[in-house]
Task: structure prediction
Amino acid sequence: MAWSGRILPEFALIATLLAGPLAQTAATAYAGCMCSACGYPAAPGHWTEAGAANTGERLRARFRRAQILQRVLSAYGLKAHDGGLVPGIQLSSLTGDQAIVRDLAEVWVAAERMSGKTIDPLDPCFVG
Amino acid sequence: MAPNDVEASSDGRMRLSILGGYLGSGKTTWLRHQLHEGVFKDAFVIVNEAAETPVDDALLQSSSKLAVLAGGCACCTGKAALLACLRQLCDARSKRSSQEPRLERIVLETSGLADPGPIVEAIRSDPILVHHILVSEVLVTVDALHALAQLRSEPLGRRQVEIADCFIITKLDEANQAELKTLLATLQFMNPAAVLYGSIKGSETSLPDFADVEPEILPTFLDGEAPAPILPTRLVIDDTIDWAVFSVWLSALLHARGDDVVRVKGVVRTPAGRLLVQTVRRIVQSPEILPEQDDRPEREDNVIVVIGRGYDADALKRSLRWFAGVSP
Result:
């Protein structure tokens, strides 16, 4: 679920302080894992965040992810930003529309709504 | 649970349990739990995967006797390899006297693209195997979330259902109850002789009562109307593709093509460890962190298999390279 509209940085910061950046990930940490006896442990949090093992790597991964999103979404007239301070990814359009989304799955839904276009990584602009 | 409890067969033949089911329906999850519970104790497990890069064997390490047949479905292109593997097991067993402990059971986990029917037929019509192996049961896993949609559109899904002796309905905890009951009624209508079992992550679970529910009337496939074949594509995750690139790309792919990309699986090395990535349609399982110590060759990591239709395999590779910032 995307929270869209004008971004209020003060509100986002307060929400972070109250809930904590890991509040959402802790709740979903073991969603979809095997039974504890016969499976291997599952990476906590949203699956897209599974590649980082510690806080530093997680932060670097967020910056890198925003960089890639920025490159992809620029083809649709959108900007992506993740300053690393508040949870979520910030999207904005040239017309001033803005949204904060929780994870990558929500990025594409919000980006399609904001741009009015279908985003497909197999579109000719991405495959040459 | 479901498998027939055959300790020693009365006719001296080995019992073969075939475990089939559609892509991502939970075959390996179910089998892994059974092995852990000792249900297939002392059985030889054969894992068949359509793609050249197997993944499921990494999850079945609790079986001490395991063979992998990768790179072709056992019902068609991989049939010869399966028959050769079974003959080897028969040869090894024949060299032991009947007084010695011998192999009594084989479990074959088919690829999600396989039709168990031709496998049963091939074993029964093989002049050697027919004297050594009896296909004792065909177990078919059925995904409670996606099976109805698959039965509507996929001829393969229907063939798997029609041959089953036993259905294992998986992912019960995630299913909508009304749709689940319709699925159960439809399965019973299509194959009234098969027994139904429920499962959550491999553990047996009771099924809801569906006696008063009507089965869904599935559309008839006309000639030439069957969908394009589902094919595996192998993608190498090289040094230019880190987890950020991969996760951005895969999330976009599943968002846009989740109906066509039926299954994605593979092991990706990350700073957080060896992550097992598995998807079914748009649902992504929390990546499991596999142990570093593994007797599988190193080269099999950082390879992802995308199984689906409706796209060009080369376009997948070029798109991933574009996301990595490398010229396609």
Remarks:
- The first helix of chain B runs from residue 27 to 37.
